[in-house]
Specification:
CATH architecture: 4-Layer Sandwich
Radius of gyration: 18 Å
CATH superfamily: Metallo-dependent phosphatases
Order of helices and strands: HEHEEEHEHEEHEEHEHEHEEEEEEEH
Helix content: 10-25%
Structural class: alpha/beta
Shape: globular
CATH class: Alpha Beta
Oligomer: single chain
Number of strands: 18
Number of domains: 1
CATH topology: Purple Acid Phosphatase, chain A, domain 2
Largest sheet: 8 strands, mixed
Number of helices: 9
Length: 365
């Protein structure tokens, strides 16, 4: 069970929460020293920790990942009681040292809807629900964070800062959007970046030097530079991607190519969401990749209701164990742990999907 730790500097935390990017960099240089936030490791570390030796490879850190989350339609009412919004799956989320999901919504009650079919937004209590469920930080690099324009994104960043809740993958400019969230767990320094590879409105939604927006994979030089910069400052580098074709359980060539670029730039773990169905995992050299985690806390019965939590154990930079805990999105939108034949069906589905990943089934020795 994870322990919550006090942050020693509200100003430093707010800077990371809203993505003003002390570690972001478009050129690939290490940049300023990161501000580290304690996971289960105790108080916030000092910036000088960035120069400490390699972590003890015998120390194990547990990570958990899940897919798309939002509070709209049937899931909006779950925020009437934020402490229980995620239901029984919360115990699985809390059991990790660091837990991450994709927040598939703007947190705002303002803004103008963008020219697209679906629009998601949520009240500020979304952050209370995420925290209560044991989710430590969220990616907002997705195709819904600007559903209500730059006003909606700005409100989301402000609400996260007010809640002292970490978000990553979008920001007030490109430097902030590509900046990682940093945390330290038992001496392991972790950097987490978020990026999107969804084409819809990508041209107007991408962050630039002068415009708020999302960290996009369509600027591969900047994306890989951000990973290299994180590599220079952290022991473990994670990239949370938003990519894939809705309903397709196989990764596209575009996804595979970009995963290779992330691996080459130094990413240790790449996980993804967006396709509304489960994809599978494997190894790209020494980089662990899971192409798609499906829907998690979800407003609709569209596409697949198969879901779950990915659990990883790392020692240093190496994923030494992986496990997928199957779940089913229930009638109220909460993911409920699957049992019996339902659980086995999801695991069999993942085994089949692994065949089209192009990834190795085992880590290279």
């Amino acid at each position: 069970m994870k322990r919550r730790t006090a942050r020693s500097s509200l100003a430093a935390l707010t800077a990371v929460v809203v993505g003003v990017g002390l570690a972001g960099c478009a050129t690939g240089s290490p940049g300023p020293a990161p501000v580290w936030h304690g996971g289960t490791a105790g108080p916030t570390s000092s910036a000088s920790d960035a120069a400490t030796p390699e972590p003890n490879s015998a120390v194990e850190v547990r990570l958990a990942f899940a897919g798309d989350v939002h509070f709209t339609g049937r899931t909006l009412r779950l925020l009437d009681e934020p402490e229980t919004a995620f239901g029984p799956i919360a115990s699985t989320l809390r059991d990790a040292d660091v837990t991450l999901v994709n927040l598939e919504t703007a947190v705002t009650d303002r803004g103008t809807p963008e020219p697209k079919k679906y629009h998601f937004r949520a009240p500020k209590t979304a952050f209370a629900a995420l925290r209560a469920a044991g989710v430590d930080a969220v990616s907002i690099a997705n195709n819904h964070i600007l559903d209500y324009g730059q006003q909606g994104l700005s409100d989301t960043l402000d609400a996260a800062a007010e809640a002292r809740y970490p978000v990553f993958g979008a920001g007030r400019d490109a430097e902030a959007a590509y900046a990682p969230w940093f945390t330290t767990v038992r001496g392991l320094r972790i950097a987490v970046l978020g990026m999107s590879q969804v084409h819809d409105l990508a041209g107007s939604w991408r962050a630039t030097d002068t415009r708020p927006g999302v960290a996009m994979a369509f600027d591969p030089a900047r994306a890989t530079a951000a990973v290299r910069s994180a590599r220079a400052q952290a022991d473990l580098v994670i990239v949370f991607m938003h990519w894939g074709i809705e309903g397709n359980s196989c990764p596209t060539g575009e996804m595979k190519t970009f995963a290779g670029r992330l691996s080459g730039a130094g990413a240790d773990i790449v996980v993804g969401a967006h396709a509304h169905t489960l994809l599978a995992d494997g190894w790209l050299g020494r980089t662990y990749v899971h192409y798609g985690l499906g829907n998690f806390l979800w407003y609709s019965t569209s596409h697949s209701t198969d879901s779950g939590v990915l659990q990883l154990v790392v020692r240093g930079r190496t994923v030494v164990d992986s496990k997928f805990v199957p779940a089913t999105v229930s009638g109220n939108g909460q993911p409920v742990p699957a049992t019996g034949a339902g659980r086995q069906r999801i695991l069999d589905k993942l085994a089949t999907a692994q065949r089209c990943t192009g990834l190795a089934a085992k880590r290279p020795e």
